[in-house]
C-alpha cells in the first residue's frame, strides 16, 4: 500500500536521497543536511497516530564520512525517545557524528533523556529541522546542547534553498497537528470525501457505497489511523450506518464523533458498537433526553452544547487534547465546518464515474458565495493516482507560522496589562506538554510500588498503575489478563484505553470495592511518583498557595470540568500531597471548593 500522510513526504528511500547528493557531486553540507532532516521527518511520520497527543520525533545519526550509523523514532509517549534509540544503534560510531532531528526535543518529563543521550553518545553536531512549537519548551534543548559545547544548527536559519525548504516543510507537516494546536484553539482538521467525476458524493437516493475504489478506501483507513477522531453528521449515520474504523491492520484506532442537532438517530447502529473503539455524540442541550439515556446505556458518551456549531465543537475537542480530526461527513456539515474556518486540509478522491442527478448531494453545501472570484483556492496542491481514482489534496489555510505560538505569561502581560504574569492563584494542568504537565497521571514517570506480597514492581506511569488496579485481585482469568495487558501497555494513553474499554464492556471484571478504594489507589501512586522524582517534588512544592486544577473538560471526577463543575479529585489529591510534603498535618483547609 502506498504511504499516505497529512504531508506528502518523498516516497524515495533515504539512501537514494543521499546518493543523489553524492552522485550529482552536490556534496555541500546543506544538501546532505536537508536530505538527513527529511529522513528524520520520514521516520517520525512512521508512528503518526500512535504518538498523539504528543509530537512525532525521528533521529538520524550520520558519521563524518556520511554513513548513517543509527536511526530511531518515538513509538508512543513514554516509550524510548528517538534520540536514545538512534544513539544506541550507532554505538561507538556516534562519537564525532552529526545527529539530525526533525524537531527540537521537548523535555516535558524532566529527565532530559534526548539531550543526555546525544551528549553521552559523543555527538559533535546537531541539526534541527524545527524548533519546538510549544513556547514553554522551545529553545530549552537547543540551549542545553550548546551549553555542553555541541554545535547546533537550525536548518534554514543561515541560508535557504529548494532542498532546505522541502526538508523544513516535511518537518512542519509531520507535526502539523501540534503546530496547529500551539497556534490556535482548534485541532488540525482534514475534510475527506469521495466524489464522482460529475461532483456527486451519493446518488439522488442518498446511496453512496461505493464511489471510490478499494485502493482509495484502504488509503482512507490509513488516514483514519493517523487521526485522533473521525466525525460525521447525523444524516450520514442515518443513511450509511458507517463503522468509521481504521481497518488497515494493527494501526491506531480513532475515536468516532457524531454531530447531531436533533439526536434523531437509530437505536441500533454500528457506531454504538463500542467493542473496538468509543463513540461520542455531540448535540444540542436538552435534545431527546430519553435517547441520551439509551446511548449512555450502550456506553456512548453524549456531550451537550448550548450552541452546536463546528467551531464550538472543535474548541471543545481541542480542550480535550485532540490534535487531529478527520471529517468524513456529507456536504451539509462540511459547508458548516468550512464556513466556521475549522478545516485545514482537503482530501478529495475523484472516481472516474458519472452518476448524474440534479438533487444528488455534492461534497460541500452552501457557502453563500455568488461569484467564482470568491472560491476558496487550495494551497500546496498534490495530485496522486490511487487505483482508478485521482486523489487531490491541498490546504484550505496555510499552516500557522511558528512565530505566533501561545505567548508566554510575560508576553501576555505585554499584550494585555490586565493579565498579571504573577497571578498564580489557580494552576491548571492537563496534557503532559503543559507547563505543569508533569502533574498529569499520563506523565511518563515510572513508579515502583509494592504488590500484595511486598515485592516491588515497576509501573510505567501512575495511569498504568491506576487502570490495572481496577481489575487487580478479581478471581477471573480475564481480569488477570487485563492487568497484564495494562501493565505492558506502551503508553499511558494505551493503558487508559484498555482499562476504560474493558470497564465499559465488562463491568463484572472490576473489583467490587473499586469506588471505595480508587482515591486511595491514586493517592498512593501519586505519593510514590512525587517521592521518587526530586524535580517533580520541587515543582509541586513550588505551587504552594495555588489551587491545582486538572483542566479536563470531560472527566468530572478527577478533573475540573468545562466550567468548574468537575470534582477535581486529581487536583485535590495533589494539594493534599503538597500539604503532606510541606509538613502540614491537615489538608482539609486547602481542599478547594471548585468554582473556577
Ligand atoms: N461520498 C462521500 O465521501 C460521503 C458521502 N456521504 C453521503 O452524504 C449524504 C449525507 O449528507 P449530509 O446530510 O450533508 O451529511 P451529514 O449527516 O454528514 O451532515 C448533516 C447533518 O449534520 C448534523 N449537524 C449538526 N450540527 C450541524 C451544523 N452546525 N451544521 C450542519 N449540520 C449539522 C445534522 O444532523 P441531524 O439532522 O441529526 O441534526 C445534519 O443533518 C448521504 O447520502 C451519505 O451517503 C456522506 C459522507 C461522505
Ligand atoms: N461513499 C464513500 C465514503 N463514504 C464515507 O465512508 C463512511 C463509511 O465508512 P465505513 O462504514 O467505515 O466503511 C461513510 O459513512 C462516509 O462517511 N468514503 C469513501 O472513501 N469512499 C466512498 O465511496
Low-confidence stretches: 1-25, 403-423, 585-596
Number of contiguous helices: 19
Round the Cα radius of gyration to an integer and report it: 25 Å
For the record, give the distance between the C-alpha atoms at the N and C termini, rounded to a whole number.
50 Å
Largest β sheet strand count, sense and barrel closure: 9 strands, mixed
Your description of this structure?
The chain has 596 residues and is an alpha/beta fold. Helix content is 34%, strand content 16%. It has helices spanning 14-23, 29-45, 82-90, 113-121, 140-147, 162-174, 176-183, 214-225, 234-240, 289-297, 310-319, 331-339, 409-415, 462-469, 477-487, 492-505, 514-532, 534-541, 569-581, and strands at 58-62, 68-73, 98-101, 125-128, 151-154, 188-196, 229-233, 255-260, 279-284, 301-305, 324-327, 345-351, 379-386, 389-395, 426-429, 447-450, 456-459, 547-550. The chain has a 9-stranded mixed beta sheet with strand order 10-9-8-7-11-6-12-14-13. Strand 16 (447-450) and strand 17 form a beta hairpin. Helix 14 packs antiparallel against helix 15 and helix 15 (477-487) packs antiparallel against helix 16 (492-505). Residues 1-25, 403-423 and 585-596 have low confidence and may be disordered. The site of the ligand Nc1c(N[C@@H]2O[C@H](COP(=O)(O)O)[C@@H](O)[C@H]2O)[nH]c(=O)[nH]c1=O has 18 residues, from helix 8 and helix 9. NADPH dihydro-nicotinamide-adenine-dinucleotide phosphate binds at residues 193-194, 201-202, 206, 208, 211, 232-236, 239-240, 259-262, 264, 308-310, 328-333, 336, 361.
Amino acid at each position: 500500500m502506498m504511504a499516505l500522510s497529512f504531508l506528502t513526504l518523498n516516497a524515495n528511500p533515504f539512501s537514494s536521497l543521499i546518493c543523489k547528493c553524492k552522485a550529482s557531486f552536490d556534496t555541500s553540507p546543506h544538501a546532505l543536511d536537508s536530505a538527513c532532516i527529511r529522513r528524520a521527518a520520514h521516520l517520525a511520520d512512521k508512528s503518526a497516530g500512535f504518538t498523539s497527543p504528543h509530537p512525532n520525533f525521528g533521529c538520524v545519526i550520520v558519521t563524518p564520512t556520511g554513513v548513517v550509523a543509527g536511526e530511531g523514532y518515538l513509538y508512543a509517549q513514554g516509550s524510548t525517545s528517538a534520540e536514545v534509540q538512534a544513539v544506541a544503534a550507532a554505538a561507538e560510531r556516534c562519537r564525532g557524528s552529526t545527529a539530525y532531528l526533525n524537531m527540537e526535543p521537548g523535555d516535558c518529563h524532566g529527565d532530559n533523556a534526548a539531550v543526555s543521550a546525544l551528549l553521552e553518545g559523543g555527538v559533535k553536531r546537531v541539526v534541527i529541522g524545527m524548533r519546538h512549537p510549544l513556547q514553554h519548551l522551545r529553545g530549552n534543548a537547543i540551549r542545553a546542547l550548546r551549553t555542553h559545547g555541541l554545535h547546533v544548527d537550525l536548518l534554514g536559519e543561515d541560508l535557504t534553498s529548494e532542498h532546505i525548504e522541502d526538508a523544513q516543510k516535511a518537518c512542519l507537516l509531520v507535526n502539523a497537528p501540534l503546530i496547529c494546536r500551539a497556534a490556535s484553539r482548534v485541532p488540525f482538521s482534514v475534510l475527506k470525501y469521495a466524489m464522482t467525476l460529475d461532483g456527486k458524493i451519493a446518488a439522488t437516493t442518498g446511496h453512496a457505497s461505493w464511489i471510490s475504489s478499494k485502493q482509495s478506501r484502504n488509503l482512507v483507513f490509513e488516514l483514519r489511523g493517523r487521526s485522533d477522531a473521525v466525525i460525521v453528521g447525523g444524516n450520514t449515520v442515518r443513511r450509511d450506518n458507517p463503522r468509521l474504523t481504521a481497518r488497515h491492520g494493527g494501526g491506531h484506532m480513532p475515536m468516532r464523533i457524531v454531530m447531531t442537532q436533533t439526536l434523531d438517530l437509530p437505536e441500533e447502529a454500528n457506531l454504538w458498537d463500542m467493542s473496538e473503539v468509543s463513540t461520542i455524540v455531540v448535540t444540542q442541550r436538552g435534545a431527546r433526553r430519553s435517547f441520551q439515556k439509551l446511548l449512555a446505556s450502550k456506553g456512548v458518551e453524549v456531550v451537550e452544547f448550548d450552541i452546536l456549531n463546528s467551531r464550538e465543537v472543535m474548541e471543545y475537542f481541542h480542550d480535550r487534547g485532540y490534535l487531529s480530526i478527520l471529517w468524513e461527513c456529507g456536504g451539509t456539515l462540511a459547508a458548516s465546518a468550512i464556513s466556521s474556518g475549522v478545516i485545514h486540509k482537503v482530501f478529495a478522491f475523484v472516481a472516474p464515474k458519472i452518476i448524474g442527478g440534479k438533487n444528488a448531494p455534492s461534497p460541500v453545501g452552501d457557502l453563500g458565495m455568488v461569484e467564482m472570484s470568491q472560491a476558496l483556492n487550495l494551497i500546496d496542491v498534490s495530485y496522486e493516482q490511487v487505483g482508478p481514482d485521482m486523489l487531490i489534496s491541498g490546504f484550505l489555510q496555510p499552516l500557522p507560522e511558528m512565530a505566533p505560538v501561545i505567548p508566554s505569561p510575560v508576553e501576555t502581560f505585554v499584550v494585555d496589562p490586565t493579565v498579571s504574569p504573577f497571578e498564580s492563584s489557580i494552576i491548571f494542568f492537563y496534557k503532559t506538554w503543559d507547563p505543569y504537565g508533569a502533574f498529569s497521571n499520563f506523565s511518563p514517570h515510572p513508579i515502583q510500588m509494592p504488590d500484595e506480597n511486598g515485592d516491588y514492581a515497576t509501573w510505567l506511569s501512575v495511569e498504568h498503575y491506576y487502570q490495572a488496579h481496577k481489575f487487580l485481585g478479581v478471581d477471573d482469568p480475564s481480569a488477570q489478563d487485563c492487568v497484564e495487558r495494562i501493565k505492558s501497555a506502551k503508553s499511558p494513553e494505551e493503558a487508559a484505553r484498555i482499562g476504560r474499554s474493558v470497564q465499559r464492556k465488562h463491568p463484572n471484571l472490576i473489583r467490587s470495592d473499586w469506588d471505595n478504594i480508587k482515591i486511595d489507589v491514586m493517592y498512593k501512586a501519586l505519593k510514590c511518583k512525587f517521592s521518587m522524582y526530586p524535580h517533580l517534588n520541587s515543582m509541586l512544592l513550588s505551587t504552594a498557595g495555588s489551587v491545582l486544577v486538572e483542566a479536563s473538560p470531560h472527566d468530572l471526577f478527577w478533573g475540573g470540568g468545562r466550567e468548574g463543575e468537575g470534582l477535581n479529585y486529581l487536583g485535590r489529591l495533589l494539594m493534599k500531597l503538597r500539604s503532606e510534603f510541606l509538613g502540614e498535618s491537615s489538608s482539609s483547609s486547602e481542599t478547594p471548593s471548585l468554582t473556577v
